[in-house]
């Protein structure tokens, strides 16, 4: 699992590569999460290279949503593979996030 954070204008783009599961989520939270917040800004999570997400990974998405909302920002998820989109759909997370196709 790899996380790449890039600033594109007013938007922070977070690209997650690989699997976000019980084994990788703690490392992602420890190393990546502190840098994910963009105070009062826009955050985009590029999920095009996210191969799999477990409940531990979904928890990180919830934390990011709370961090962004607390700072009056916005969060969108783009480019989800079908397997990841299905996980969001089955858990009801698709109703909690703005999910867009890749552009």
Mean pLDDT, rounded to whole units? Answer: 89
- Cα(first) to Cα(last) distance is 23 Å
**Secondary-structure element order, as H and E?**
EEHEEHEHE
Number of helices: 3
Strand content: 25-35%
User: Which architecture per CATH?
Assistant: 2-Layer Sandwich
Per the CATH scheme, the topology name is Transcription Regulator spoIIAA
3D structure, described in words:
One of its GO terms (molecular function) is anti-sigma factor antagonist activity. Residues 1-103 form the STAS domain. Pfam families: STAS. Belongs to the anti-sigma-factor antagonist family. This is Anti-sigma factor antagonist. There is one protein chain. The protein has helices spanning 25-31, 55-70, 82-91, and strands spanning 2-8, 11-20, 42-46, 50-53, 74-78, 98-100. It has a single domain (2-100), classed as STAS domain (Transcription Regulator spoIIAA), CATH 3.30.750.24. Helix content is 32%, strand content 33%. The protein has three helices and six strands; from the N terminus they run ββαββαβαβ. Strands 1, 2, 3, 4, 5 and 6 form a six-stranded mixed sheet that branches. The model has no long low-confidence stretch (mean pLDDT 89). With 103 residues, the protein is α/β, with parallel strands linked by helices. Strand 2 (11-20), helix 1 (25-31) and strand 3 form a beta-alpha-beta unit.
Q: How would you briefly describe this protein structure?
A:
This is Anti-sigma factor antagonist. The protein has 3 helices and 6 strands.
Topology summary:
Elements: E1 2-8, E2 11-20, H1 25-31, E3 42-46, E4 50-53, H2 55-70, E5 74-78, H3 82-91, E6 98-100
Parallel strand pairs: 2-3, 2-4, 3-5, 5-6
Antiparallel strand pairs: 1-2
């Amino acid at each position: 699992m790899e996380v790449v954070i890039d600033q594109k204008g007013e938007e922070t783009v977070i690209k997650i590569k690989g699997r976000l599961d019980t084994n990788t989520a703690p490392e992602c939270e420890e190393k990546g999460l502190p840098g994910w917040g963009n105070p009062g800004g826009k955050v985009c999570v590029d999920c095009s290279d996210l191969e799999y997400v477990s409940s531990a990974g979904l928890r990180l998405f919830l934390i990011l949503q709370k961090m962004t909302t607390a700072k009056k920002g916005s969060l969108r998820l783009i480019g989800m593979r079908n397997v990841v989109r299905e996980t969001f759909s089955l858990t009801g997370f698709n109703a909690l996030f703005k999910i867009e196709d890749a552009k």
